[in-house]
Amino acid sequence: IKQVFPEFEPEELPLDHPIFHCVYDLTERPQIPAIGYARQMANGETYTAQGYGTEEVHYWGLYDTNRRLMAVICHNTDLGDGWEREGEDPWYFREFSEKKAYPLGINIIFYAMTH
Fold first, then answer.
1. Cβ contacts of 77 within 8 Å, gap of 6 or more
2. What pTM does this model have?
C-alpha cells in the first residue's frame, strides 16, 4: 500500500468510529477466522487455531489530506471468507458470516456511500 500511497500512514480505527456503527451497532472489532481455521476451533476463540500472535484483531484506516477514509485495512481477520465461503458450512455462516462479516461489510459500504 506504501507504493500506492507513500505519503499516508494507516491509523487504527477506534471502536467508536462510525464505520462500526452506521447501520449495525457493533460492540467489538469482529474477528472472522478463515473457514479452515474456524473448523478447527475447539474452545470458541477465533484466533486459537490460527496460531500465536493472531489474538488481536486490527482495523486501520487510510485517510487522505482532507481526512476522508480511502481504505480500510483488516489485520488478523479474514473478513472476505465471511462473505465468500458462507455457503460451505451452515455453522460458519451462523457464527461468522451472519453475526460479524455481513454487518461489518454493510457498514463499510454504507459509510463509503455516505461520506
1. 29, 30, 31, 32, 33, 57
2. 0.86
